[in-house]
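Objective 1.3, modelling of assemblies. Example input:
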Amino acid sequence: MTPSLHLWLLPLLPLAGFAINGTLGRRLTKSVVSLVALLFPAAAFIQVLWIAAQAYHSLALPYVERFATPWIAVSGFHANFSFLLDQLTLIMLLVVTGVGFVIHLYSVGYMAEEEGYWRFFSYMNLFLFFMLTLVLAANFLLMFVGWEGVGLVSYLLIGFYYQKDSAANAGKKAFIVNRIGDFGFLLAMFLLIARFGSLSFTTVFASIAAHPAMQGGALTAIALLLVLGATGKSAQIPLYVWLPDAMEGPTPVSALIHAATMVTAGIYMVARTHVLFDRSPLALSVVAVIGAATAFFAATIGIVQTDIKRVLAYSTISQLGYMFLACGVAAYSAAIFHLMTHAFFKALLFLAAGSVIHALGGEQDMRAMGGLRKKLPVTFWTMTAAVFAIGGFFPFAGFFSKDAILAATFLSPHGGKLLWAVGLVTAGLTSFYMFRLWYMTFFGEARYREHRVDHAAHSTHGSHGVHESPWIMLLPLVILGILSFAGGWIGWPEAFGGHDWIGHFLDPVFGNSAAPAANAATYGLERILAAASMLTALIGWFLADLFYRRRPQLAEEAERSMQPLYKLLWNKYWVDEIYADVIVWPLLVLSRNVLGRGIDQGVIDGTNTAWATGARGASSWIRRMQSGNIRSYAGWLAAGAAAVLIVVLYLAHLY
Amino acid sequence: MLNASILTWLTFLPALGAAVVMLLPRRGRAPQVFTLLLTLLLFAMALHLPAHYDYHQQQGFQDELNVPWIGNPNIHYHVGVDGLSMWLVVLVSFLAPLGVLISWRVIEDRKSEFYALFLLQQTAMYGVFIALDLILYYAFWELSIVPLALLIGMYGRKNGRAAAIKFFLYAFIPSALLLVGMLWLYAQTGTFDLVQLQQQLHGWSTGSHATGLWLTSLAFLLAFAVKVPVFPLHGWLRDGISEAPTAVAMILAGKLGLYSLLRWHVALFPTEAAHIAPLMVALAAIGILYGALLALVQTDLKRLAAYATLSALSFCVLGIYAFTTASMDGAVYQILNESISASAFFMLLGILYERYGTYDMAQLGGVAAKMPRLAVLFVITTLSLIGLPALNNFVGEFLILSGSFQTHARIAAVATLGIIFSAAYMLWMVQRVFYGAPSAHVTGLVRPDVNWRERAALWPTVALMIAMGVASLFWMRAIDLTVPAMAPKIATAHTAFDARIGSTR
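Predicted structure (tokens):
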């Protein structure tokens, strides 16, 4: 007998935290707020562990839980509150609640001195509610609730410092750009209803499975519209522009929402609906090309950025591109594997960067850092683990997942050597800009101004100078550091004598998809590919070492000698400006001048005026009839009676 | 017994109350207190309708009363509700006390008249929603115009009179055509009764009366479309909403016209409605985008709200004329949602105006730091209006768009673009009013945050935004019983019309 897992409780736990802190938080002390904010996510994490244990022992997956009363029901269409648990969900749940809880813990330290402490934590709990809804949903519509819900919380948290115009702008931009993606998601749902009469995953996928001949066509349209949604949420070309600006939010938000969980929702969605993509080679290719292009493109921008969080933001876009690429070559388990390891090391990178920023009293510019290795030892060592992980160095977590993606790209019938080469070059770039960040932050001479830091630190902590963060911030760093180091071992490839546990674990979900089956024949090739990517990463490291540690003047020379290229990258290819000039500005001009002045004030108000003028003319004529002369009234009466008679007679004749 | 008379009590108590208000002392709070108590009583009475609604009865009307009124011409006092009108009656009753609360201190001059007119229009609204006899309906329809026009004219912001005249003429002139159409119907059938008319008109679309019926249906359509308003007949809306006091702006647009479109156009002339539907669907899609784009470039909050209203109401029009069960169910549900959320929005704007004396966004800014509670309520309302899932508007808009997509895929896809623009103008507005550093104007004025009375008016709407987004079935049950009973008729009517086109060729 299958025990009831009470999946419904899972999202409701953090929602309760949100409700308590959201309504009473203003009046509660900070320690009570923190307690509430930590307790509910912790409870959710524990429930996930319990569910995982059940799944390991006895549970038959997939497991579906449905609320008796539907959410929306009209004749011919209904959508339920229904939750689905399978291997994919389980991994997402572990990442969301696990990493989520750790980041909540960190935030207690990081946000300790902030105004609106309760507001921050109520939003964070609300985020977990929506993210868990997204992950657990058993139909597209409920998934969309989580999908837009996490976008809402992202909007609120990016704009957390709402008095800052840049923060308010960034929040708004994130929401609107995501709405463009949601437009695609909605249309995809409309098409699904038209084709399948249902939005339930089980129903839709079963009816696709029942029709082996169904290929391309409407499925391609649905898949591509879903991709539009995914490019918004997962910050891919062409809708990635909101994510760099999203760094206006507090750093733990960047770690949780804009690195580890929310932005991976697009990848999760593609993986969840892979049945559609498997039937549409075109959609797969689009995903792969978008992914590879985004990975490379964002990495090039990341090379020249000087704001530590922006570098990480572009790196996130680039890594999400890898995951997209993996989905596009139908290597869904590799995508989910990288999603997981990325959640570890990118969350760690952000939290460590937050620790640095915290220590320097809010400084985010890497040109004003340097030499922090000794002052912030825990931060330094944990961040080093993360840098090696994202760089793809054996045996750190990122090596295994990135290698899985690159190998799949090379070997998959949907992939190819060109996509693989782009991925490989990007790996080199990644290694380069991450070591650049590492060197600029922790090595060389100290370029921060003690005086300024001292001042900021003094006002907040009462201690002097640059100092390591409190334990409540360091503990999360250590946990994530361990995961960044060893978290990839669950995907130790068979080519290297491992068992690729995660790949096999996910097999029931992605089973007969077109991913290349691991077989002994390709082991040799896989080893060569892995060696190539290791080598590329080493070259990146070597160059960063050369430019930013051994001969810093080289970086400046390069900057000067390649001025146009540098400018292009520094200005992020002017994409924001192009969007503003090509889309936003014409739209506003059209609305203001053509629709506003032209049609509304011109045609519509103009017609009013014309009517009014006409009416005034008529009324002045009618006024003359009210002469007060009895005889004239009698005349009009007679005329009126005659008119009525004529009309009545005429009408009687007509019918 | 109560079932038969409840609607009559509901309808005429406010008119009686209006007379009482005029007799009450003008000084002090007597008019407000009395009107508030009366509207609360009416709300409690209106809850009788859903509480005793018979969900097993699939067809026809409930709480029905049909007595001869005038022998010749044959006019009946025929009233009743079904799934289409029942919740609208409750909605009117729900919004009335909120309108009183929000006017509490704003209306000081000519106070008794204000509340008397306010109650009078409530009678008219009830009447429109329950009348099943054309003449009775028409009487209430006309009655609804006058108090609203007077309220705009007497209590307007700057140019109340001009806006009131515009509103009056826009509403009145097409009503004359409506009357002509009604008389033609009576001349042909000898009845004003909705049910009898529906039976008698069956098959007329192809007979010798086809032209007359077509013209009559157009007269009806025009009168209702102006009242909604449907693009491009929205000329009165911007000034009407800009000038109207909050309590009037809350009820000015939308439900009367939309309900009438369903009851007295689609249900009465199904074939003609199907014929004109492609035009209406197109106008609705244009209205959605047009309203949203104009809202994007407004600097005055009330004008922004007016264009946003045009956009939001166009969704309902789209749903009605897309003629699928989902889209029509969604449209009826959306009438309720839009009304509730837009009312909350107007109340919030009114509160802002009361505090800072302006609707100009350029003068506002950074209000969140000064009035955090207002900011919370405002953001929630904004989210409801832009259709955030799990809030009320999403359910309605989703059903409308997904339903429309099945019959008019391209137009529905274009209309869906509206969700992008609505997010844009709403969030931009929130930013300009609430975020950033407080503006000089805002800094200069020390104003209290929302008080208990305003919270009492706002929190019920917020509660409904959530409840109607999560538990839509509670409301949808009755709606979905009535609308599908309409939809098959439409489907067959559609084919009948096509057959006729085929035969004439």
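Chain B has 23 helices and two strands.
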